[in-house]
Structure formats: structure tokens, C-alpha cells
């Protein structure tokens, strides 16, 4: 994600659905329920314990007039322990839960859908959840994420988005296959992740189905519906699909289309830098007329607000396809591994195209921010130590810029050959997995053969401005 002068939509208090219970509990007393969270201290209710989702089959209908979303999702999941019940993350009111075709008891309180069904370790379940409501009425963790007007809707946000439109195990630790089928008025276009695999028209409505070839984590799934100009093709060996809102001013619409059509070429440039194949089977982008204040790295097809339609942002979001999408964070404290790397690629692209070198950029940033500036008063590798206002903290500008500065400084210390080998190893060894700050630090030391403890302490862990020394990449 890249945010430009973004004011988060924060509300006081969580709007919740009424508590719903269909019948008395039926779980086995000797088995505990799965936990309400996967174990990330920044967001204790994110994800769920005791389950591993294999796939989501999403079938949603969206009504533009009153912005109501209704639908059902089939969640295929496997139990990782003997459980008396398990949770899914969903904000919309729940109408029913069926497992292997039979109705089961459930409770729904705000963010947590609690399914009262005993399951044995290793058992595979077919869970169908039906739901309906107005996503714009709900908030979670200080986020009111539904982006829509009477003409257009785009389900895009981070670190949370899925619970506003489908039930999920909402954390980067659990990626799954996802199919997205959206029903909307037939005169609207629907764009989502991956490849379009079908469109069926029934009267005034049309159902459009998209399916990525590769698994992804829930917050990276998206759909956009509205009046879009759509183009597709193949460039540098990469199929691409781009869509630009027809509600943008004509000049911005033309510029956005021209810019996004270069996504495949930019993807190929990043491949060359990393020496690593693009991890997905299609690329592209979507430009919305709505203005959330940021762009987002939705897997295979980043989404761009009107204010983010520029080359630097496109490079940033495409770099995320490796750093954040293919290699996801293990926990949200490691967010600099996404944003710092994407920021570095903005800087390196500028260097390679005749602008400031990365070292000049680093020096300008370092010299331009005084030691007493709040920019230095945080730990990059743990940006939300009190677990309050975490969304504001993990996407603060110092996470992006100090993360990018740390990478350029590392490049200065270990040299280009070792630095780019570190990046190559990171994205190839961990493709389709997760990573932590400590693992990245260990990899940099392994590749370079240098003791970098003091370097990483200064740049990623200390809450003060690094000393202006060669050992810190500033000599």
C-alpha cells in the first residue's frame, strides 16, 4: 500500500450485529474451541485458531441504490486440532451456517462468527455462510473500509478488508484459493483478482466470475464494480487486464489508461532487477474514481485512487507483488518488509531512469530530517508496541521511508552484488510463504558474510537517528 496524505476513517466504538444463536451448543466438552484470533498481538481478533482454510468460493450480489451486499461463501477448511467449535471473521449479519449441507448452531457478535460444531484434527469441512447487510455501516479496529458511491464500489483496504464482504480467516498466515463471483446490474463492469472465467446475464443482472491461479491472503482479494473502460493484452510475456473508471475526468482517465497499460513492462523490469520470475499468472491494475487516499497492492491487479496515478506508485504496488503478496509478513509488526521494500523500488527505479541515485536519496532524507524529529522516535521493526492505533502506526510515513532508507544503507554497506542477491533469495526462497524481520537480518548476514547486528539495531530497532558513519551505510 502507498498512502498519500491519508486521513483514516476512524469511528468511536465498534458497530456490531446483534448476538444470534440458532440452538444450544453441541460441541464436545473435552475439546476446546478454536481461539478467536490467530495470535497476532497487534490485532488480537484477526484470523482464528485451529483452522486452515484451503479455499473460498464467494458469491455476492451488490445493490448500488442502497449499497447493500448479500450473498454466500463456501469456505473449505481443515481443522488443525480437535475442536468443539471454530471462528471466522465477518462483520455483516449472518443468516445461516451450513456444514456439509446441514444447518449448524452459530453465534455472531461483531467481528466474530462463532460456529458451534465439533471437528477432529485433520477433518475437512465444507462450510457455507449466508449473510446480508450494508457494509458501510460497520467498522473494525478503527477502520470504516467500505468505499462506494451511487455509481461505483471498490473493496480495497489494508490490513483488513475481507470481513466487509466475505467470511474469512483474516490474517497473512493463512492464504487460500479464492474464486470471486459478483452479481451486479448488467450495465456495470466487475473487475477482481486473477482471470475472468465467466459472465452470465440474467435479465437486468449479470454475474461475473474471476479466479486467480495462485492462493492469496484474504485482505488482498478485491472486487470493483461500476462503469469502467477495460483493456487487456500481453506484454513481456505477461497477460494483463486494466480498468479505468469512466467517471474520472477525461484527461485523468486517458493518463490512467496509458499508465496502467505499462504494468506488464514495469513487472518485467522488476523481474530483471530481482532475477526472479513474477510470482503470478497475470498483472494489470484498476483506477477508481473514488478517493480513499491510497493505492493498494491487491494480488495480480493493484487498485489506484485518482491521486495515486503516477509511475512511482505503480512501481511501488507492483514491487509489492513480490514483497507483501508472494512473501507475506508473518505478523503485522513486520510491515516494513512490505512497505520499505516497495519504497526502495520507487527509489531504485528513479535511479535507473536518470534521477537521483539511491545513495543521494538516502543522504537527502537523512540530512533533511533532524535528530529531534518524531520521524526517528519509533522502532521500524515494531511500529505499534502498545497495540493502540495500530493501523495509523503501521502505515505511518516513517515505516515507509525509514524502511527504504535502511535498505539503501544496507546496499551501501554490503555492495550491490550481495544486496541484490539478498533480495533474490528472499523472494525465491520464501515464495508463497511468510517472512519476519529476524529472518531477513539472518539472510543478509548469510549472503554478505558480515556481522550486521549493529547496523540493523541502528536502522530497524533503535528509536533514534542512526549515527552518520560508514558502518551505518552513510560514510
UniProtKB/TrEMBL annotation:
EC number of this enzyme: 3.4.11.2
Residue ranges constituting the Peptidase M1 membrane alanine aminopeptidase domain according to the UniProt record: 308-459
Origin superkingdom: Bacteria
Alphabetized GO MF terms: aminopeptidase activity
Alphabetized InterPro entries for the sequence: Aminopeptidase_N-like_N_sf, Peptidase_M1, Peptidase_M1_aminopeptidases, Peptidase_M1_dom, Peptidase_M4/M1_CTD_sf
Keywords: Aminopeptidase, Hydrolase, Metal-binding, Metalloprotease, Protease, Signal, Zinc
Region (Disordered): 22-41
EC category name: hydrolase
Listed cofactors: Zn(2+)
Catalytic activity, as annotated: Release of an N-terminal amino acid, Xaa-|-Yaa- from a peptide, amide or arylamide. Xaa is preferably Ala, but may be most amino acids including Pro (slow action). When a terminal hydrophobic residue is followed by a prolyl residue, the two may be released as an intact Xaa-Pro dipeptide
Signal peptide: 1-22
Family, similarity comment: Belongs to the peptidase M1 family.
Designated name of the protein: Aminopeptidase N
Highest classification ranks of the organism: Bacteria, Bacillati, Actinomycetota, Actinomycetes, Propionibacteriales
Amino acid at each position: 500500500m502507498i498512502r498519500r496524505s491519508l486521513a483514516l476513517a476512524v469511528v468511536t466504538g465498534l458497530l456490531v450485529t446483534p448476538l444470534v444463536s440458532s440452538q444450544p451448543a453441541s460441541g464436545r466438552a473435552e475439546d476446546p474451541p478454536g481461539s478467536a484470533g490467530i495470535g497476532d498481538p497487534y490485532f488480537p481478533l484477526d484470523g482464528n485458531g485451529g483452522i486452515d482454510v484451503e479455499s473460498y468460493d464467494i458469491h455476492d450480489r451488490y445493490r448500488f441504490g442502497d449499497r447493500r451486499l448479500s450473498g454466500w461463501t463456501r469456505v473449505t477448511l481443515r481443522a488443525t486440532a480437535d475442536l468443539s467449535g471454530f471462528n471466522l471473521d465477518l462483520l455483516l449479519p449472518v443468516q445461516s451456517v451450513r456444514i456439509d449441507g446441514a444447518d449448524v448452531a452459530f453465534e455472531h457478535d461483531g467481528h466474530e462468527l462463532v460456529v458451534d460444531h465439533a471437528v477432529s484434527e485433520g477433518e475437512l469441512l465444507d462450510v457455507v455462510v449466508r449473510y446480508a447487510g450494508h457494509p458501510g455501516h460497520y467498522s473494525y479496529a478503527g477502520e470504516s473500509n467500505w468505499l462506494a458511491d451511487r455509481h461505483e464500489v471498490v473493496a480495497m483496504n489494508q490490513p483488513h478488508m475481507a470481513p466487509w464482504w466475505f467470511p474469512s480467516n483474516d490474517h497473512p498466515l493463512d492464504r487460500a484459493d479464492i474464486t470471486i463471483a459478483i452479481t451486479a446490474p448488467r450495465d456495470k463492469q466487475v473487475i477482481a483478482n486473477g482471470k475472468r472465467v465467466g459472465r452470465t446475464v440474467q435479465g437486468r443482472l449479470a454475474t461475473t466470475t474471476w479466479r486467480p491461479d495462485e492462493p492469496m491472503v484474504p485482505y488482498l482479494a478485491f472486487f470493483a464494480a461500476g462503469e469502467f473502460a477495460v483493456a487487456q493484452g500481453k506484454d513481456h510475456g505477461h497477460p494483463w487486464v486494466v480498468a479505468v473508471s469512466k467517471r474520472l475526468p477525461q484527461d485523468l482517465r486517458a493518463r490512467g489508461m496509458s499508465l496502467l497499460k505499462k504494468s506488464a513492462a514495469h513487472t518485467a523490469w522488476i523481474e530483471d532487477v530481482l532475477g526472479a520470475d513474477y510470482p503470478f499468472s497475470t498483472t494489470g491494475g484498476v483506477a477508481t474514481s473514488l478517493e480513499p487516499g491510497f493505492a493498494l497492492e491487491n494480488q495480480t491487479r493493484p487498485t489506484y485512487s485518482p491521486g495515486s496515478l503516477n509511475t512511482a506508485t505503480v512501481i511501488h504496488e507492483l514491487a509489492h507483488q513480490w514483497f507483501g503478496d508472494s512473501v507475506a509478513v508473518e505478523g503485522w509488526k513486520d510491515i516494513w518488509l512490505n512497505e520499505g521494500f516497495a519504497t526502495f523500488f520507487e527509489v531504485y527505479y528513479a535511479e535507473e531512469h536518470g534521477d537521483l541515485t539511491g545513495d543521494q536519496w538516502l543522504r537527502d532524507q537523512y540530512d533533511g530530517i533532524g535528530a529531534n524529529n518524531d520521524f526517528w522516535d519509533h522502532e521500524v521493526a515494531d511500529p505499534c508496541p502498545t497495540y493502540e492505533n495500530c493501523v495509523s502506526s503501521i502505515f505511518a510515513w516513517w515505516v515507509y521511508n525509514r524502511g527504504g532508507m535502511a535498505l539503501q544503507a544496507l546496499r551501501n554497506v554490503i555492495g550491490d552484488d550481495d544486496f541484490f542477491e539478498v533480495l533474490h533469495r528472499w523472494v525465491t526462497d520464501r515464495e508463497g510463504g511468510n517472512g519476519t524481520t529476524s529472518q531477513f537480518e539472518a539472510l543478509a548476514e548469510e549472503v554478505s558474510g558480515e556481522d550486521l547486528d549493529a547496523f540493523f539495531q541502528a536502522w530497524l530497532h533503535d528509536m533514534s537517528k542512526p549515527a552518520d558513519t560508514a558502518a551505518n551505510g552513510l560514510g
